[in-house]
Amino acid sequence: FQPVSYLYSPELMREYHVALRPQDLKPHIFAVAEQTYRNVQSQIAPVNQSIIVSGESGAGKTWTSRCLMKFYASVAAPVISPKGNETVERIEKRVLDSNPVMEAFGNACTLRNNNSSRFGKYIQLQLDRCHHLTSASIRTFLLEKTRVAYQAPNERNFHIFYQITKGATAEERLEWNLPEGAEYRWLPNSERNLDEDCFEVTRDAMFHLGIDHSTQNNIFKVLSGLLHLGNIQFSNPVDESQPCELEHKTKALLHIPVEELLESLRIRTITAGKQQQVFKKPCSRAECETRRDCLAKVIYAKLFEWLVLVINESIYADPSAWTSFIGLLDVYGFEAFPENNLEQLCINYANEKLQQHFVAHYLKAQQTAKRHPDEYAAEGLQWSFISYQDNQKCLDLIEGNPLSIFSLLNEECRLNRSSNTDLFQTRIEKALSNNQCLSRNKFSKKPNFIISHYAGKVCYQLAAMVEKNKDPIAPELVQVLQNSKDPLLQKLFSVTERNQTNIRPQNRAAVVTVVAKFKGSLEHLMQILNSTTPHYIRCIKPNADCKAMTFKREEVAFQKPFLTDSMRSFPETLCRALHWVFRDLELLAKLFSQHIFK
Ligand SMILES: Nc1ncnc2c1ncn2[C@@H]1O[C@H](COP(=O)(O)OP(=O)(O)OP(=O)(O)O)[C@@H](O)[C@H]1O
């Protein structure tokens, strides 16, 4: 939590790059980076490489990924600039510039980390025949879009909202409708100033990536519109047949006439009967709020998706221009909050998958090491048995066929059952009770289930989980966005985009659920990872309070990367010994400091 500049300096990069045997130097992420690069150069199959950066929230995954990108931008930089074109930034600069933009829009201050990535990222650095960086591509996973409209206590919205409200010039404030000192409900804890609030860095990077000033202006105006949308508050009408009232008057937002906007938020259109008759029904206050939040989330998610597309266009090259790649994976770490829902289930599922990948690779590496088979045989251990047992059980519970949490969640969505969570809890328990990874917090009144993950137990709340999985958007809301006169919104919600949004089906046609989409994209990622030579970097957080130069042994020991439940029994003697030595030392240290000195 304190930059140590020489640790990541260009000189040190060079030292690892030119070393005869980088592994003989001090352990460093540059040693891993250099080994990975040499693997590509050696051309031994599989030539393509991946570095999987893992660790809990705030441990340093994003920081490490940034350093790795800088390393390759330095050691694999192309010798000449592309076609001598001075107006285009060099590829390595554009690749590095993707970081501040993605972080401004996709990171936020959470309880665990001031700069927490709220999305997963896989970046492929593509190299030509001479192993020079020619291009790159970025794939993102599941942005936590709920954060736009809801921020947990003591957390913040995405950084970009603070950047525009703090960094806009007087003229821009006028143009973007962001008066000085105005208050926004969706901008909590804005009095906290973070390094991540720097607007200039984001703007410069956007410009280098080809997002001109006028498009930037448009983006920031839309973001300001979202902040104003969050200030719209509804109250119950005196006459229930009337739409909800507004607590304060509101002006036109997002280039949508105010009447049109309010109608879409407060009145539901129902099409029913054989003749497809259209009825209009005022929404309850809670429904109005849900629709308002939904509108903000769908806009922000589309904007983020579009930004990734623009960045990709800026760093893209035709596949004929490159021959190999190094992939860097930086996904959100394992999460266990006091309240967990669908977002955490997906994040932890991703981590479970990666852990399985790690365990499989680690075991394979051990298996191929000459001396090992006898050792295992002596202990009566079988490979196939050890590899996956706990991990696989947990994955079976989450995504297995035919019955799993995911399949039951999808079934609830398909049958449009979302309100009775008690019944859903019973259904889960009935269907999956034979899986030892499943349990329940019996002391909690709220319907829930507990999954015993490789990294620990997590209790998930069932309330709203089915609805989140459906992620529906009312057709009226899409329509209002399609009718907006805002050029960016027109682009994001062009009529052809219609099919890609989960418009709430009038009939019960299947919706593509969040978990189905997430599972699909993760499986695709695993296929890519499985076709590469993997390398792992495990980040360890020195203390949970993010304090500079503070190293808490107990907290560090708890993050031990190897001794997960499935690994504890393997290879038994070694792991058991290590595990107990570690624990005994901790215990002794504690006893020593607490009692003996006293
Ligand atoms: N090598 C380092 N040197 C100094 N500070 C560091 C280092 N690595 C991480 N940090 C500090 O820790 C903070 C958290 O790191 P980072 O954002 O990379 O965590 P993360 O693992 O990506 O977390 P999340 O899963 O929440 O996204 C950084 O903002 C920085 O202050």
Could you please describe the fold and organization of this structure?
With 598 residues, the chain is of the alpha+beta class. Among the domains are: 348-468 and 515-530, Methane Monooxygenase Hydroxylase, Chain G, domain 1 (Up-down Bundle); 543-596, no CATH class. The chain is 47% helix and 12% strand. It has 22 helices and 14 strands. A 5-stranded mixed sheet has the order 5-4-10-1-14, sandwiched between helices. The longest helix has 31 residues, at 285-315. The chain is globular, with a radius of gyration of 26 Å. Adenosine-5'-triphosphate (ATP) binds next to helix 3 and strand 3. Residues 1-3, 55, 57-63, 112-117, 332-333, 539 line the site of adenosine-5'-triphosphate. InterPro entries: Kinesin_motor_dom_sf, Myosin_head_motor_dom-like, P-loop_NTPase. Pfam families: Myosin_head. Residues 1-598 form the Myosin motor domain. Belongs to the TRAFAC class myosin-kinesin ATPase superfamily. Myosin family. One of its GO terms (biological process) is actin filament organization.
Topology:
Blueprint: H1 10-18, H2 29-42, E1 49-54, H3 61-75, H4 91-106, E2 107-108, E3 116-117, E4 120-127, E5 133-141, H5 159-167, H6 170-176, H7 199-208, H8 213-230, E6 234-235, E7 245-246, H9 258-266, E8 267-272, E9 277-282, H10 285-315, E10 324-330, H11 342-368, H12 372-378, H13 383-399, H14 405-414, H15 421-432, E11 438-439, E12 448-453, E13 456-461, H16 465-470, H17 475-482, H18 487-492, H19 514-530, E14 533-538, H20 553-558, H21 565-568, H22 572-596
Parallel strand pairs: 1-10, 1-14
Antiparallel strand pairs: 2-3, 4-5, 4-10, 6-7, 8-9, 11-12, 12-13
This protein binds adenosine-5'-triphosphate.
Residues 1-3, 55, 57-63, 112-117, 332-333, 539 line the site of adenosine-5'-triphosphate.
GO biological process, one term: actin filament organization
Pfam family, one: Myosin_head
Family: Belongs to the TRAFAC class myosin-kinesin ATPase superfamily. Myosin family.
